[in-house]
Amino acid sequence: MSALGLYIHVPFCRRKCNYCDFVSYPYDAAAASRYLQTLAQEIRLRAARLGGKAAIGSIYLGGGTPTCLGAAAIESIFEFVARHFTVLPGTEITVEANPETLNPELLRALHLAGVNRLSIGMQAANDTELRFLGRGHTFRRVVEAVEWARRAGFTNLNLDLIFGLPGQRLKDWEKTLKEALALGPEHISAYDLEIHPETPLGRAVAAGAYACCPEEEAREMYLMAIDCLTAAGYRHYEISNFALPGKECRHNRLYWVGEPYLGLGPAAHSYLEHRRWANVAALQDYCDLVAGGKLPVAEEHALTPAEEMSEALFLGLRLTAGVSLSGFAARFGRRPEAVYGREISRLVAQGLLCREGDLLRLTRTALPVANVVFAAFV
Ligand code: SF4
């Protein structure tokens, strides 16, 4: 088995953003303490199930806002992981952070604990937009957080950005892109705002308080991000992700190339030995199941070879480098053209896919509507 990526979901935030449909609860010390004990027990159970000390090549603490746990709790998670797994030298260790939870001491402690990649939720450079999103920080706080992170020794920073807000204009988004670039991050993720019905923003939109950003404008903002960030030297390596050379996120790449990862914590997903499973989402259920000595799995699915081929295409095509036709054939014993010949020909004729030597990849036209392409392979 190749080295695993380890994802740990920390389900707490200082406050809930207006658009958030992630599994996250308001931070509460007692709940966080129970979560940490449960996570430790889940690590024990999972490590025992895997047998031996499985090798780990990347660790990603996501959420939620892992940094609202504080440095000591995060260090204890790493200690526990190291006790039950073999964390390989050079492992990429990412922690997601929101600016309102960061301070110089916490950042120094995280860096000392071995965290070598920090992903900061900036989202926008405009405080009116940040308030609209219900974020708990100003742009000034983002700038401070980046300065503190650099002083603490971090040399690999990601900034998360969101575009397509109701009422957002192209020039507002351009300002966010420019301010993000001025902070000099090694990596930028740019996501189209998804409006989920069961969120305060979703309900406000349903009640007619705001109109969604028109699709055409969101498309222009996305293309602006590609042009602006690539002109600044970032490589657009995945639909929503941009990195300076060599700074692509190694952990997230696992999801797109079909390599194994183990997810721990509520709602975490795993992919290992041709199986996918998801943990229960509710924190209470998660804690109760693990306290009863059970793995907190809500659903598990053994993938058929046909499903794995489908995934290899629709996940692999997320990478702008595309899918290697010979690599696919080596993995599955059949070339993509033999399995999806009709779909590939149609998408090539529509200008959504192109073939370059051994690679099949999305065209620029397809990037904003990539789901249309992916649907052809599902
Ligand atoms: S910081 Fe992220 S996870 Fe937390 S509430 Fe906001 S969007 Fe949700």
Automatic annotation (TrEMBL):
Keyword set, alphabetical order: 4Fe-4S, Chaperone, Cytoplasm, Heme, Iron, Iron-sulfur, Metal-binding, S-adenosyl-L-methionine
One BP annotation, GO: porphyrin-containing compound biosynthetic process
Keyword Kinase appears in the UniProt entry: no
Signal peptide: none
InterPro entries attached to this UniProt entry: Aldolase_TIM (IPR013785), Coproporphyrinogen-III_oxidase (IPR034505), Elp3/MiaA/NifB-like_rSAM (IPR006638), HemN_C (IPR010723), HemW-like (IPR004559), rSAM (IPR007197), rSAM_sf (IPR058240)
Role: Probably acts as a heme chaperone, transferring heme to an unknown acceptor. Binds one molecule of heme per monomer, possibly covalently. Binds 1 [4Fe-4S] cluster. The cluster is coordinated with 3 cysteines and an exchangeable S-adenosyl-L-methionine.
Annotated Pfam families: HemN_C, Radical_SAM
Subcellular location: Cytoplasm
Protein's UniProt name: Heme chaperone HemW
A molecular-function term among this protein's GO annotations: coproporphyrinogen oxidase activity
PROSITE patterns in alphabetical order: RADICAL_SAM (PS51918)
Organism name: Thermodesulfitimonas autotrophica
Family indicated by similarity: Belongs to the anaerobic coproporphyrinogen-III oxidase family. HemW subfamily.
Primary subcellular site in the record, as a coarse category: cytoplasm
Keyword Signal: no
